Amino acid sequence: MNVAAPSTAPSARTQRIEALLIPVLERAGMVLEAITVTPAGKRRLVRVLVDRAVQVDDEDRTSILTPLSLDEVGDITRAVSDALDDSDAMGEAPYVLEVGSSGTDRPLTTAAHFRRNVGRLINLTVTDDDTRVIGRIAGAGEHDFDFAVPVAKSDQSTTHTVPYVTVERARIELEFNPPREALTDIDTDIDSDIDIDTDSEEQD
């Protein structure tokens, strides 16, 4: 699998924040997906993307995993905020903290990403063919995933086992009317972020 590498190395501040937050998230059963720190006027915007930790193996490739709820995102936001407040990782300047889960626009780049999205429709390109194919993740294991591709002019699909190392690109396809078997909790993404403004908190 071609895991997207950042265009530039993370800053020293970002690395400090990562080192601080990873154990906080692990205690909550979460994993850190990404951190960005960007200027926002006189403040800085700190965006933290998290997701539920999953065990990826071939014993259970097909069960549907429950996405993060708003309550869980709220709990994680408070834990992250407390950790940052109790450290000097952000320095003295005020910042706005946003914590959320990865949206459907983020590419699938790890086995855990595929496992979390079993049941979803994806747009897939493999390394030896530039053709993009739309199909459904029917299962996902440690080294490969099951990809169900609809048969033309039929209600049937053909399932292929795709090794992750052959994946060039994979992204979630939004569905407005998914089939009944795909109507599960996996279609309740938490795309909205929960914000904490440290500047306004200090003024209260």
Description:
The protein has 204 residues and is of the alpha+beta class. It contains four helices and nine strands; from the N terminus they run H-E-E-H-E-H-E-E-E-E-E-E-H. The protein has a five-stranded antiparallel β-sheet. It starts with 11 loop residues before the first helix and ends with a helix. The relative contact order is 0.19.
Distance between the termini: 48 Å
- Using the CA coordinates, give the radius of gyration: 19 Å
Look at the structure and give the mean pLDDT.
Answer: 85
The helix/strand class is alpha+beta
Keywords:
204 residues, alpha+beta, five-stranded antiparallel β-sheet, four-stranded mixed β-sheet, 4 helices, disordered N terminus, disordered C terminus
Brief characterization of the structure:
This protein is α+β, with helices and mostly antiparallel strands and 204 residues long.
Write the layout of secondary structure elements.
Elements: H1 12-27, E1 30-40, E2 43-52, H2 70-85, E3 95-101, H3 111-116, E4 121-126, E5 129-140, E6 144-150, E7 157-163, E8 167-172, E9 194-197, H4 198-203
Parallel strand pairs: 2-3
Antiparallel strand pairs: 1-2, 3-9, 4-5, 4-8, 5-6, 6-7
Helix pairs in contact: 1-2
